[in-house]
Amino acid sequence: MLLIECPHCGAREESEFSYGGQAHIERPKEPEKLSDEEWAAFVYWRDNTKGVYLERWNHAHGCRRWFNMARDTVSYEVLAVYPMGSKPPKLTMKKYV
C-alpha cells in the first residue's frame, strides 16, 4: 500500500485518496469560442509521461481537500506533495529510455 503525505492531515493510506488527473491544466478563458476539436483536446488529451508526472489528488476519505503531487510513473515513488495553486518544486528528472 502506498502512503501519501496529505499536506493537511499527514501520511495516510492510498485508499483514502482519489486521483484527479494531470495537474496545472488551465481551463480555457472563453470555452464557448473553441471549436469542437479544441474543446475535445482540452477535455481528453493529457500528457502520458514516463518518469516525473504532476498530478492532482483529493483526500476523499479525510479532509476532502485537493493537493498536487509529483510522482515517478515508473517507480511509483512520490517525489513531492504541494498545495493547490503552488508552483511545482524543482525536481531532478530521471532519464528513462
Structural write-up:
Helix content is 9%, strand content 34%. It is mostly beta strands and 97 residues long. The strands form two sheets. It has a four-stranded antiparallel beta sheet with strand order 3-4-5-6, with no helix packed on it. A two-stranded antiparallel ribbon has the order 1-2. A hairpin with a 5-residue loop joins strand 5 and strand 6. The protein is globular. The chain starts with a strand and ends in a 14-residue tail after the last strand. The model has no long low-confidence stretch (mean pLDDT 92).
List its traits:
two-stranded antiparallel ribbon, single chain, mainly beta, 97 residues, four-stranded antiparallel sheet
Short description:
This protein has one helix at residues 36-44; strands spanning 3-6, 10-13, 18-22, 52-58, 66-72, 78-83. It is mainly beta and 97 residues long.
Secondary-structure class: mainly beta
The proportion of strand residues reads 25-35%
Counting DSSP H or I runs of 4 or more residues, the number of helices is 1
The Rg value, from CA coordinates, equals 15 Å
The major beta sheet can be summarized as: 4 strands, antiparallel
Mean pLDDT: 92
Order of helices and strands: EEEHEEE
How far apart, in Å, are the first and last alpha carbons?
A: 27 Å
What is the number of E strands? 6
